[in-house]
């Protein structure tokens, strides 16, 4: 039985969305058990033989400062959900709540794995090959060192290997060009570390990639700092919404476009499904001593169910153990990189 802890109060919509998603998830996963965390009075109506309600009296709002969420709201649904992972009651926690608060609470309760300075947010963006390209970091770390980017590559490789059964997923370093001489000093140094990891057999390093390569599916994993990654993520969501909106408007423009739309419907339907960002919801917080997944705050029931699916797949495929083993294998390289840089960032 796979046990997931769900922060039912988080996000823009709270139980109205999370509970509907949980019911759909349970219907399609007979080997799953959910710990529904939140205000008891709002969860009392949800009845299922594979559900346990875990009460929490407080809620972290989307605009709560990290300090409030971490130090003041110690009985929040978000914190109690992550606590279930720490206690061993759940194999993963899922929340649509405040990203900064979730990262801070998860890091405080679960701690980081040995060899990892900072956790990273990893997420799959749709590509032209009909699959997705995993990108990290997507916003947890705005300022990154070359050593952090190496750590992200190791963790991302473990994630893709576990979820896609790919033994040696390819890793690309996001840069302004493919040439080794391009990029900032941090990116150049990161390239050196990643090439060394590739030569040592710890990574399948492809080399530098540009922004458009992410959506071409040139590599399985793209590594970047959190500022760039978050911009890429929000841009992708915006473009997907724009394409969907344009297609819907064209369907109802006039009789000729309606006829053309009917003829092309199978193709257009497949395209709209491919660019529907709800299908790619659920980002992993990597580098922690436990599994935590972040859903988009505005997620509807379909999107939140996809986040639950990702957490379930990660737990079922022993993602945490795979990350640990990858980090252990790369430990000499990670330690050498930290020693050479002279610092280990907090």
From TrEMBL:
Pfam families cross-referenced by the UniProt entry: FA_synthesis
Provenance organism: Comamonas testosteroni (Pseudomonas testosteroni)
Catalyzed reaction equations: a fatty acyl-[ACP] + phosphate = an acyl phosphate + holo-[ACP]
Molecular function GO labels: phosphate:acyl-[acyl carrier protein] acyltransferase activity
Pathway: Lipid metabolism; phospholipid metabolism
Domain of life: Bacteria
UniProt-annotated location(s): Cytoplasm
Family statement drawn from the similarity comment of this UniProt entry: Belongs to the PlsX family.
Keyword Electron transport appears in the UniProt entry: no
Signal peptide: none
GO biological process: fatty acid biosynthetic process; phospholipid biosynthetic process
The encoding gene: plsX
Subunit record text: Homodimer. Probably interacts with PlsY.
Keywords: Acyltransferase, Cytoplasm, Lipid biosynthesis, Lipid metabolism, Phospholipid biosynthesis, Phospholipid metabolism, Transferase
A GO cellular component entry from the record: cytoplasm
E.C. no: 2.3.1.274
Protein name from the UniProt record: Phosphate acyltransferase
Function comment: Catalyzes the reversible formation of acyl-phosphate (acyl-PO(4)) from acyl-[acyl-carrier-protein] (acyl-ACP). This enzyme utilizes acyl-ACP as fatty acyl donor, but not acyl-CoA.
EC class name: transferase
């Amino acid at each position: 039985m796979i046990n997931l802890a769900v922060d039912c109060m988080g996000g823009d919509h709270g139980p109205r969305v999370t509970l509907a998603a949980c019911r759909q998830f349970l219907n399609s996963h007979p080997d799953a058990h959910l710990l529904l965390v939140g205000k008891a009075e709002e969860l009392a109506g949800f009845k299922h033989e594979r559900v346990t309600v875990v009460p929490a009296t407080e809620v972290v709002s989307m605009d709560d400062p990290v300090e409030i969420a971490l130090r003041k709201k110690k009985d929040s649904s978000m914190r109690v959900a992550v606590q279930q992972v720490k206690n061993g009651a759940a194999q993963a926690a899922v929340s649509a709540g405040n990203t900064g608060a979730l990262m801070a609470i998860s890091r405080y309760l679960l701690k980081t794995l040995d060899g990892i300075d900072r956790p990273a947010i990893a997420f799959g963006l749709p590509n032209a090959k009909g699959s997705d390209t995993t990108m990290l970091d997507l916003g947890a770390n705005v300022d990154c060192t070359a050593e952090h980017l190496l750590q992200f590559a190791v963790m991302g490789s473990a994630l893709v290997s576990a979820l896609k059964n790919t033994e040696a997923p390819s890793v690309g370093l996001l840069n302004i060009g493919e040439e080794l001489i391009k990029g900032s000093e941090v990116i150049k140094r990161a390239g050196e570390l990643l090439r060394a990891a590739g030569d040592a057999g710890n990574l399948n390093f492809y080399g530098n990639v540009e922004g458009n390569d992410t959506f071409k599916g040139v590599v399985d994993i793209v590594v970047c700092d959190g500022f760039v990654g978050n911009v890429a993520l929000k841009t992708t969501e915006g473009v997907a919404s724009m394409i969907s909106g344009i297609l819907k408007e064209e369907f109802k423009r006039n009789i000729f476009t309606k006829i053309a739309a009917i003829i092309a419907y199978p193709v257009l339907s497949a395209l709209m499904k491919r660019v529907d960002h709800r299908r790619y919801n659920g980002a992993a917080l990597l580098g922690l001593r436990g599994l935590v997944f972040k859903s988009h705050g505005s997620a509807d029931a379909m999107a939140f169910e996809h986040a639950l699916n990702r957490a379930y797949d990660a737990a079922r495929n022993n993602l945490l153990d795979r990350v640990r083993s990858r980090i252990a294998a790369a430990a000499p390289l990670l330690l050498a990189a930290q020693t050479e840089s002279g610092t280990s960032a907090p």
